[in-house]
Amino acid sequence: MEKYVYIEGKKYRRGYTTGSCAAAASKASVHMLLTKESIGSINIDTPKGIPLTLEVKNVEIKNNYSICSIEKDGGDDIDATHAMDIFAKAELVNREAEDIIVIGGVGIGIVTKKGLSVEVGKHAINPVPMKMIKSEVRKVLGGKNNLLNNKSLKITIFAPKGEEVAKKTFNSKLGIVGGISILGTTGIVEPMSEEGWKKSLSIELEMKKAQGVNKIILVPGNHGEEFIRYYLKIDMSNCVRMSNFIGYMLNEAKRLGFKKILMAGHIGKFIKISAGIFNTHSKVCDARNEIMIANLALMGADLDFLKEINECVTAEGAVEIIDKSKYTEIYNVLCNKCKERAEEYLNEDIQVEVYMFRMDKSLLGKSKNADLLMEDFR
After folding, report:
1. Which residues, in sequence order, are bridge partners of residue 15?
2. 65, β-bridge pairs
3. How far apart are CA 246 and CA 273, in angstroms?
4. Radius of gyration (Cα) for the chain, nearest Å?
5. Cα(43)–Cα(250) distance, rounded to whole angstroms?
6. What does the sequence similarity comment in the record state about its family (predicted)?
7. How many C-beta atoms lie closer than 10 Å to residue 82's C-beta?
8. Of 70, 74, 89, which Cα lies nearest the Cα of 21?
9. Given CB 3.0 to 4.6 Å as the disulfide criterion, which of 38, 104, 119, 301 pairs with 296?
């Protein structure tokens, strides 16, 4: 594997997924079960087409089973599972319907809600890692199922620290309890992977749809959730984070068939949406002052006032000045522009309403029908 990639001129190290760890540990444990010989490393292929050679750790070989682990390496895209050991136990059991059976054990979460790619009640080993595990194990067998002596090969994936580590992940929000997920569609962790982040956000939307939800609340993050919970007092079961990926999540909501979308966010992000900016990360675009000044000018604000706003380093600083002026209607103007921009962006019969708040989570403004839509969520 090419260990490094360059992003915006900076060097970052690649890693590999929990799915790759599970596949490698499974292959190694099966090899050692059948040969009764310890190995120090194992080779696997990944869906991305990049082969891996991974160190085998925590080896235990007995007459009727074998256990080993692979240490997860997230590269420079470090997450909660980085450096934890993913174990596999291989054993021969009485013949079952399948020759290779893969289950989860201690520290692997159990799916409790519909909408994920794993059935409710089963351990969170996603389809691609499951396919990888079975594919790598079959390479050990080499098509010779007679090696199993008319038995089935049972592989248990487990992670002793999984339940503790899972508290630092999004699993609880996704309805995965008791441990981590075995994930990865390519087997390789690409550093600074925006696509992976987006996909994790999409999964929540897909789950809501699978649970029968037909309208959704989108917020950038923690602050938006707190505003929904404590100010609007709406049931949080309809609320999904979108981070900075406003356009992406609006399109995902459209794809999944949501017809009503309530958005709530801090003015620092939502003022960008009012100007048609649908990725609100400051590295992508930051024209908060320019947008505020243009709208205040259209309201008749004089030059000295606009200059004072232009000196503000943050949107919150501008709010302090505007709150003492006669231009507080600017907040509703911005919310209605957010609504119009979002509905134009979606280009379909989907209602969008918007709330905007200060850093202390108090209300700044709202679009014209926001309160009516909010009542639908009560």
Report:
1. 189
2. 91
3. 8
4. 26
5. 41
6. Belongs to the CbiD family.
7. 15
8. 70
9. 301
CA–CA dist 66, 36 (Å, integer): 8
| Alpha carbon distance 21, 183 (integer Å) | 10
Q: How far apart are CA 202 and CA 116, in angstroms?
A: 11
Report yes or no: 116 and 202 within 8 Å, Cβ to Cβ: no
224-248 pLDDT, tens digit per residue, is: 999 999 999 988 889 999 999 999 9
- Residue entry with tokens 């682990």: 69
The Cα 267–Cα 261 span in angstroms is 18
- pTM here is 0.74
Closest to 285 (Cα-Cα) out of 272, 296, 295, 274: 272
**Structure tokens belonging to residue 6:** 């360059």
Do 227 and 355 meet the contact criterion of CB atoms below 8 Å apart?
yes
- What digits encode the pLDDT tens for the residues 339-351? 999 999 999 999 9
> CA torsion, points 165, 168, 173, 174, in degrees to nearest 10?
-40
